[in-house]
Structure formats: C-alpha cells, structure tokens
Amino acid sequence: MKFVKGVAPYLHKGGINFKTQAYNAWVETGGRVAECHYPPRMLHGLFFRHELPTICKSAKEVRLRFVEPVSLSFDTFPDYARYEIIPFIWDCWPCYFEKVCAWFKKHNVRTAIFTSSQTAERMRERFPEMNIMYCPEGIDTSRYSAGKPLTERCIDLLEYGRGSGLNIEMDGMKHIRTKKDGKYLYSNEQLVEVMADAKVTIALPRCVTEPQIAKDIETLTQRYWENMLSRIVMVGHAPQELVDLIGYNPVIKIDSEHLKKQILDIVAHIGDYQDWVDYNRKIALEMGEWVLRMKEVIHYLRSVGYTI
Length: 308
Prior knowledge:
The chain is 35% helix and 17% strand. Helix 3 links the parallel strand 3 (61-67) and strand 4 (84-89). By secondary structure, the protein is α/β, with parallel strands linked by helices. The protein is elongated, with a radius of gyration of 21 Å.
C-alpha cells in the first residue's frame, strides 16, 4: 500500500496559482506533503516541452500533483521520473485529450482526478481499468467578502475573467470590464473588492464563450462560487454540475436578444434580488469549500487502496 503525498503547485510571478487553493485544502485536511523541486526559471521553457528520463520508481510513495494539460510535464516535475503520479486535472478540454492520454500511458497512471464530470467520463471510456474520480471545482471561501447590500453598490455590471464575449454597451450605467487588450486591470485582491461592490455579472461557461476551445464540455468553474460568495446577481447559464451539486439553479437565464433591457430591468429593481443573493452566498459557504472536496478525495483514494 503506497502513501500519497501532495506537492505544492508552482507559484507564478506575484504568487498567483488557482491550484494552490486545492493544495492548501489537502494540507488542511491532514494530507501528507512532499517538497517541491521546480527547475530554475531560466529552464522553465525546456521542461515545459521535454521530460526527464524515467528512473526506478518508488514502491512506497505516490505524488498527488495539481496540474493543467497545457503544462502537464512542468506541473509534475520532476516526480514523474521517480514516483507514481496521481494527477488532479483542471481545464482538460478536448484539444488536450490526446496529449493527456499519451502521458497517462507513458507514465502508467493508475489514478486520476478531473474537475469536469464529462471529461472524467470520457477518460473512463478510454481507460476502463484506471481509477478516475470526478471532483467538482471548489474555492477558498474565506477570501471573498459578502460586500454591501445590493442597493448600496456602485458597479451596475461587472464582466471579469474572459468576459461574456457579447460586446454589450450599457449607456448611463457603471459597466466595468476587468480585461482590456488581453491584459487584466486588477490584482486578485482588487478584484475581490470590485466583486463586493458589483450588482450584476454575466456568468457563462466556457463552452458558450469559447466553444472553439471547450467544444461541448460544460463544467463548473471557480467563477460561479466567486459570484455567489460576493452576492452578485448572475445572468447567464449555470453548468449542470453546479445545479446537480447544490440542488437548484442560482443563475438567471440570459435573454441574449434583449440582454441590455434585461440587465437594465434587474438593476432598476436590484433590491428585489437581495434575498436571492443572500441565499446563494449561504449555499456557497456550505458547499463550495475546497476542504469539503479534499475530504472526498481522501475518502476516494483510500477506497482504491492508497494510504493517506
């Protein structure tokens, strides 16, 4: 029986890596940890593209690594050469399936965790003997403020992250986009403050905003938890994973043909939505926390034969 040890994700410039929240929850729930050994910055490009040769692998230890397919070799460096890897995978879109499958075969991956239920199911079809877990994306709830009551907020419409892609203009309203010309205008801390002062946001899954990447993969992302915790009225579409997890739809269905009118009407009656956003925050606090996910991960890993 092998011991599982988690390894901290690489901290990019500014100390930002969304995968770190999941790793911190692993530590908080009592998961064992191993030291990370990322290459010097000058060698990052090399180890994004190439791998070390596999040597004799440990018969006693396994490494839980928090990864994205785009940086799979780097995110698991250098443990893939010496240990069995359990990859915990975000953003495994169809364009990365072949890369991920080839990597699984090369490194004899026995167990993998995906934040997308659809991706997990498709991987089960390709690897019927592999232990594959679906783990809904979570969040560190302590980082997000309930903010002011809706009637006291200053920002009428907030579009952040990759945005809605709808290119709407809200004349006479305070409309903020957090990304301009491909660059983000706010730090993480500033974005939390902005969200706590916003009334309405457009929330759409990537399969709607960037179908060329996500194709038909619809999945729950951190953005929905952020909106719920910040008590913002969401207009758009809720991933079925979120609806199934919490038992209701927290998003107002978007009227794409009359979106401007829809948002204007919501803002004009914003006080009517206070109870709704209060409830969304309550549910996010109860069900969104990464610690809950990690308890499920630990239970699953034990059930398939690992020691935590």
